[in-house]
Design a protein that fits this description.
The complex is a heterodimer.
Chain A lengths: L2 H11 L7 H37 L1 H13 L6 E9 L2 E4 L7 E2 L5 E3 L3 E4 L4 E6 L4 E4 L4 E6 L2 E6 L1 E5 L7 E8 L2 E15 L2 E15 L4 E5 L2 E6 L4 E5 L9 H4 L9 E2 H12 L2 E4 L5 H5 L2 E2 L8 H9 L4 E6 L2 E6 L4
Parallel strand pairs in A: 9-11, 18-21
Antiparallel strand pairs in A: 1-4, 1-6, 2-3, 2-5, 5-8, 6-7, 7-10, 8-9, 10-12, 11-12, 12-13, 13-14, 13-15, 15-16, 17-19, 20-21
Chain B lengths: L2 H19 L2 H19 L7 H18 L9 H19 L13 H9 L8 H4 L2 H14 L4 H9 L5 H8 L3 H23 L3 H7 L3
The chains are: A alpha+beta, B mainly alpha.
């Protein structure tokens, strides 16, 4: 086989396919983390073997040392609770572990990976009142309480009303990391990069190259694989946000007044609550509601709850208009 | 044992030792040597589903990494990884309840043995019995199955027109070492083609219409 034959053959067969850059980046990051974990475990085993050897020569003292050594394996930190699950939601503790179906109330711990199937959506209640929603076909690795990695699909984060300080929670993606500053935002991985939609508040995005971009309420940032950022507008409510309410956890209404319930509905639906006519905040605060929103989407819960009162609500653009019955 | 294989085994063992010792360069070498090749192995077996291929490659390489300490070198490292990958593909399809396993020509038992060993010539004339696309794909499979960076080096030289000096730089080795590696790569490729196709490069190129 001479050089010309070889060149002719290789050219006619064509080049081998290169995996997509985004896939390569994601697999490299995940595999590196797995490798580090493996090395950590190996070192731990070696240390325990060392302690055991000591036990052979110093029997009594070493028994204690060995027991202590085996007890030092850290208990995984609890990160949150699965507050709602729709369809198939599962988790695993590592690449070698099998998947386990998750149910409402299950604790989410550091080191686990959670995945929703094509029919699955989930909500996770995190520390500090942060609510995380997970769309269909999504995979998230919970690295530690303040760090998670979106590996596929989309998530929505609501840091809670009144939260104005930079949040501790950092969401990593192949394109960079995102930190919220009192906000509601959606993060979706795309073939070409990542889409960040800010519903309210402010979000800080830091690219893999260290560049920092900020996104504000009503803004959308698309970050491409080459680091390019494209800005645009995004509505605060409407069909593109509807998936979030599929996995809205049931709200216990007992002991809650109507004003608080409406604030909850407003956050879920991405709308400001506006009072119409002579209705005041005090009027709403004076009405206590009962029961639970279990089985109802936020918009349905809004109508169901208001029907038991002298008020009514109407969805109007980015507003929930609340007035006396038959006045709006 | 032929020189290229000897070199690969030594390289594999060094790679494994480096990986187990926590050497970042070994991790990079491992990833660069196997990620793309395993991806190309998995993708057609998963009907071209990129997302599924990503998952399967990730779990394959993770399992391979975890098994490195027990790897005895009875087969080449890539052959061993491909066996893991094959199982991962089956597991993935089973987990997703997807029937219709994709069977490629290189999954044919006798051809698989040839591709894995790159030793024994096949009885049937693959070039004549399969179409142009499949033949071209098999040429690329042979490239992927070559030891070490042979496939990359051959593509860089004959497809991208790289100089030997440049190839040496890309591989982090000197020009003389790159020249030597290319010579071994050509031998290994020729033997691989003969094992899989029972034909020489010129004949296969003619079949492909070159």
């Amino acid at each position: 086989m001479n050089d010309q034959d070889l060149e002719r053959l290789l050219k006619s067969a064509g080049p081998r396919e290169r995996p997509p850059a985004g896939v390569e980046r994601a697999v490299r990051a995940e595999l590196h983390a797995e490798w580090q974990a493996m090395l950590h475990e190996r070192r731990g085993r070696r240390n325990r073997r060392g302690a055991f050897a000591l036990a052979a020569s110093l029997a009594v003292a070493a028994v204690g040392a060995w027991i202590a050594g085996t007890q030092t394996a850290a208990t995984p930190a609890a990160i949150g609770t699965l507050a709602a699950a729709v369809g198939d939601v599962r988790e695993r503790s590592g690449w070698l572990a099998g998947w386990r179906a998750m149910e409402n109330g299950d604790v989410v711990v550091a080191g686990r990976t959670l995945e929703t199937a094509a029919d699955g959506r989930a909500a996770i209640a995190l520390a500090g009142g942060v609510s995380l929603r997970i769309d269909r076909g999504t995979r998230i690795a919970f690295i530690e309480p303040s760090r998670l990695r979106l590996e596929r699909g989309a998530l929505y984060l609501d840091s809670g009303a009144g939260q104005q300080q930079p949040g501790r929670l950092v969401v990593e993606t192949p394109a960079g990391s995102v930190r919220h500053v009192g906000t509601q935002y959606e993060l979706r991985l795309l073939d070409a990069g990542m889409q960040l939609r800010v519903r309210e508040g402010r979000v800080e995005f830091r690219s893999a190259a260290g560049l920092v971009e900020q996104g504000h309420g009503g803004e959308q940032l698309v970050v491409f694989g080459d680091g390019r950022v494209e800005r645009g507008a995004t509505p605060r409510s409407g069909p593109s946000w509807a998936w979030i309410t599929d996995a809205t956890p049931a709200l216990d209404l007992e002991g809650m007044n109507l004003a608080r319930f409406l604030a909850w509905a407003g956050r879920e639906l991405g709308r400001d609550v506006e009072l119409s006519g002579a209705v005041t905040e005090a009027d709403l605060a004076a009405v206590m509601v009962h029961g639970s929103t279990a089985g109802l989407a936020p918009a349905e819960a809004l109508q169901a709850v208001l029907e038991t009162t002298r008020f009514q609500a109407a969805l109007d653009g980015d507003r929930i208009l609340v007035g006396l019955r038959d006045s709006i | 044992m032929e020189p290229g294989v000897q070199l690969t085994m030594t390289g594999d063992q060094q790679l494994i030792q480096g990986m187990l010792a926590g050497d970042e360069r070994a991790f990079e070498a491992f990833f660069n040597a196997y990620f793309a090749r395993v991806y190309r192995f998995a993708l057609p077996r998963l009907n071209g589903d990129v997302e599924a291929a990503k998952d399967v490659v990730q779990s394959t390489l993770a399992k391979a990494m975890r098994g490195l300490a027990g790897f005895r070198g009875d087969s080449g490292l890539f052959t061993w990884i491909c066996r893991i990958c094959r199982n991962e593909v089956v597991e993935h399809l089973r987990a997703r309840n997807r029937g219709g396993k994709v069977v490629l020509i290189d999954d044919h038992a006798s051809l698989r043995a040839a591709v894995e060993s790159i030793e024994a010539p096949e009885e049937f004339d693959l070039v004549k019995s399969h179409g142009r696309e499949e033949t071209a794909r098999l040429v690329r499979v042979v490239l992927d199955r070559l030891p070490a960076n042979y496939g990359d080096a051959l593509e860089w030289k004959y497809l991208e027109g790289d100089t030997v000096e440049s190839i040496g730089r890309r591989l982090g080795i000197g020009t003389v070492a790159a020249q030597s590696l290319l010579a071994r790569a050509r031998i290994a490729f020729r033997e691989g083609l003969e094992a899989v196709f029972g034909a020489e490069a010129a004949d296969i190129a003619s079949t492909l219409g070159a």
